[in-house]
Design brief:
The chain is α/β, with parallel strands linked by helices. The chain contains nine helices and eight strands. Helix 4 runs parallel beside helix 8 and helix 7 crosses helix 8. It is globular and about 45 Å long. The protein binds cytidine-5'-diphosphate.
């Protein structure tokens, strides 16, 4: 039996996770948010006072760090060494830390192995930065979801503001943080963010999330 493995890559705030979660629900299959795994590792490094971008700091903690995920009615719960950190990993500090820690090849190798195990054992929609290009390059269902940096900053800020957070942030500050993360993600040496040549591009700048979900579902090959 062949698995349904849907791979979605793209930059921060393009709508990937909303789209991926909805597509998984429509297809009745699992959703895996791989960014949450990088975020959990970054949280551990930050809690220990380590520098997430430093190999010397991070490599020693990798072997005895356990990042696991569980699906709870379509919502992912992310555990760090057994602790539910699903909410704690959604800060701007952890966003930056995740981008920095994700540059370290040993981190990527460890997390990609966990992600490939999930894809081997489940029909899954997985979103991230290197899913089409590195984690599951052989899947026939590859998508690149993107949007302009202005639009992505606007969405990310209103998402956080709706929760009553980062009310002091200006759009300009958020735009700067997103652009800086884009740069780190797309210029790293090992498995950078880039569009796979055979990925279908969905630009959500002027597209509703509903249309994006529909477009993606209509392009899935079983
Ligand atoms: O939700 P958002 O798009 O802001 O970020 P995320 O998907 O939670 O990912 C956080 C950070 O983890 C990204 O900036 C990437 O640097 C890194 N990441 C990665 O390198 N590879 C992945 N497959 C997923 C995330």
């Amino acid at each position: 039996m062949s698995r349904i493995n849907v791979a979605i890559d793209g930059p921060a705030g393009a709508g990937k996770s909303t789209i991926a979660r909805a597509v998984a629900k429509k297809l009745g299959i699992l959703y895996l948010d791989t960014g949450a795994m990088y975020r959990a590792l970054a949280l551990k490094a930050l809690r220990k006072g380590l520098v997430p971008g430093s190999r010397e700091d991070v490599i020693p903690i990798l072997a005895d760090t356990e990042v696991t995920v569980r699906n709870n009615a379509g919502t992912q719960i992310t555990y760090l060494d057994g602790e539910d950190v699903s909410q704690l990993i959604r800060t701007q500090e952890v966003s930056k830390g995740a981008s920095d820690i994700a540059v370290i090849p040993e981190v990527r190798i460890k997390l990609a192995e966990l992600q490939r195990n999930v894809a081997r054992e489940n029909d899954v929609v997985m979103d991230g930065r290197d899913i089409c290009t590195y984690v599951m390059p052989h899947t026939k269902n590859k998508f690149y979801v993107t949007a302009s940096v202005e639009e992505r900053a606007r969405r990310r800020l209103s998402e956080l503001n709706e929760k009553g957070e980062y009310l002091e942030y200006t759009l300009e500050k958020m735009r700067g943080e997103i652009a800086s993360r884009d740069h780190t993600d797309s210029t790293r040496e090992f498995a950078p963010l880039t569009k796979a040549p055979d990925a279908i591009v969905i630009d959500t700048t002027c597209m509703s999330i509903e249309t994006a979900i529909e477009t993606l579902v209509n392009n899935i090959r079983l």
